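Cross-posted from the bioinformatics board.
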Amino acid sequence: MWEGIATGFATAFQIENLAWVVAGCLAGTFIGMMPGLGPITAIALMIPVGYSLDPAAGLIMMAGVYYGAVFGGSTSSILVNAPGVASTVATSFDGYPMARRGQAGRALALAAYASFAGGTFGALALLLFASTLAAFATAFQSPEYTLVLIFALSSIVAFAERGQVLRSFAAALLGLMLGAIGTDQSAGVQRFTFGRLELTDGLSFVMVAMATFALAEAFRMVVAGDDETPASKIAHARLHPGDAKAIAPAVGRSSVLGFLVGVLPGAGATLASFFAYDLQKRFRRGDEADGARGVAAPEAANNAACTGSFVPLLTLGIPGSGTTAVLLGVMLSYGVQPGPRLLETAPTMFWGVIVSMYIGNLVLLALNLPLIPYIARIVYLRRSVLVPFVIAFSLLGVYFTSLSAFDVHLMLGFALAGLALRLGGFPLAPLLLGFILSGMLEENLRRTALLADGDWLFLLDRPFSLVLAGACALAWLAPLRRRLSRSAHSS
Amino acid sequence: MAVLVRLALCLIAVASAAERLHMVIPAGPGGGLDGIAREVGRALMELGLVEQASYENVSGGGGGRAMAHFLENAARFDSPLLVNSTPLLVRSLQGLFPYSFRDLTPVGALVADPGVFVARADHGPSHWPALLAQLRQNPRSITFGGGSVRGSLDHIVLALALDAAGIDAKQVRYLPYDGGGKAMLALLGGEVDVLSTGLGETVAAIDAGQARPLAVTAAQRVAAIAETPTFAELGFELVFANWRGVFGPPEMSADDISSHVERLRTLRESAAWQAVLQRRGWEPLAADGAAFTTFLEDQEAQLAQTLRKLGFAR
């Protein structure tokens, strides 16, 4: 293996490959920064360039585009509350309020450092454990996924502020229902599509996220009529003294968690960022008002997870997400078949790509930090400038990914509904979470039911399932117990 | 010599009035259909048969949106082609969209991906007859998996194979996964015992010794899995392949069709295309114009019958 790592360094440090890492990261971050555009769009745009390179350089570049876009994706989440990928939704929870408080530069810097830490940890873990972790990916089956998703849903409790628990649940349920629109995964039947071709694949994440987060927020600013720009106008990328120390444990935890969740095919990076945020909220200590850890944790997790998703791709030839599926297509077009034998057939590429990720993360940090002061100024624009900007970019982002006017109309409808919900005091984060998890939860639950064939006791034979079921029970019941004991005290 | 060939190719390029090919792909970038479109375009340009090739990915609606988009915009392009594959027939049979291949002009099929049934190397039935015997005793004793929903391709091929042996496919347990990759992971993890899938998606796992092919739906043995019996050898009448081919807009002059067909023939015989097939591990399929239409009609009849038996066709 050490031999392999040495070849990897030799490949990655070739001057042209270095140039392609930089090019890929650059393209990735800039595309990823656009509201509504995520890694898939970034990779799709770069495919023609990738096709013209040799396999190692091409894949190094495409991988750079991928994690560059994940790195840059947090920018629009933090600045304009417009998560372009599901995995940066959690970043907006604490990041956007922080930017509104006039600390946009700090929030972006926190995200950049945490992303760097997560990405670097991920690259290191990939380098050392890639082949061993493949077994972990296969040990996770439908029953385990179902339980993990139920666990993830429990984090809506973390979003619920005081007195919002019921509304939070209602919003999550609405999200789950929205996720049911489209083709039924088990029976192939159309649900709630009203015979429209545009709906047979269900609602797109970007559309729902842009509508309920970015657009609804822009509309709210208009309705509220406030022209309050944040009091302080700090745009520099400096952290507060003590920030590094405060976020270090959170970043460490989230990186490990993120990488492991990322290895699981499915919604790796998304689940990872939600778990990290949730963990942070449940065990918060003196971070309620600040949110530094709430930004750092999901960012470290989603970057580590994005690297983790290369484990099943490279070692099993199985893409865990839409983005890695596109990367698989690119590899196949080079005549490179990823899988257990990739190590024998293309060792230079295998190790070269992994080592290049380490370099790529350094590049991204060096690239992003100097840019932050300029990008962060967006938040300090006057409302009358910022709102049209956000609206235009959200609409463009959705139109670019779907190329359908129907989606744009739908988005406007959703944004208005989102605004109504917000004004009615319903939090929208649980809605989006429910929507993201809905499809996966249903698919896995129904497969589990088919496997059970009426006899659910088989779950008891699965140690993983038992542990997860215990964790679920804890996650769902612990807040209830706290509440009970609190009311017992007060009475 | 090479110079002469190139010169000749340039002349052909000029003669074919330097067409600009525009391909509509009913899937996102990076998938199988995207791959074939871009390989065809690239090879045609290399051969000088077209001046330029552009691609447009229109995913969604199970391919229906691409179809609508193609029918609406075809007139705007010099030489428009729609790439498609077997699911086109399945979806129009199920009534998922209001189109069928009859709304297009079939130009030619280029590659075929036979269906294959695989078990994990150290688990599940050891060969096809053993699988059938086990199913006859208890149809729910084997869990099948596939990379698409019930009533779509992987499930249909399974139904075809079981039907040939007189087993009711509705009785067996089929778990759908979101894509062939996740289905393969379920096979390796032991959640499903046998996977119904396309050869292209499994060849890596077979090569690596993780998965064991039981039977293949090709007419003859396939080079990539030379030891795997065909259904004909096992004594069943079953041949099936997921074709990938190109279509033109509904109104095409006979001249247009024949020039397209001629171009595909040149492509198939070229070394460049042979290299593509080799590199991608694709099985070639040659059916052009009228022959392609007949091929489609036959496959449609085969699929319609199976879908009816499964209770999916309208």
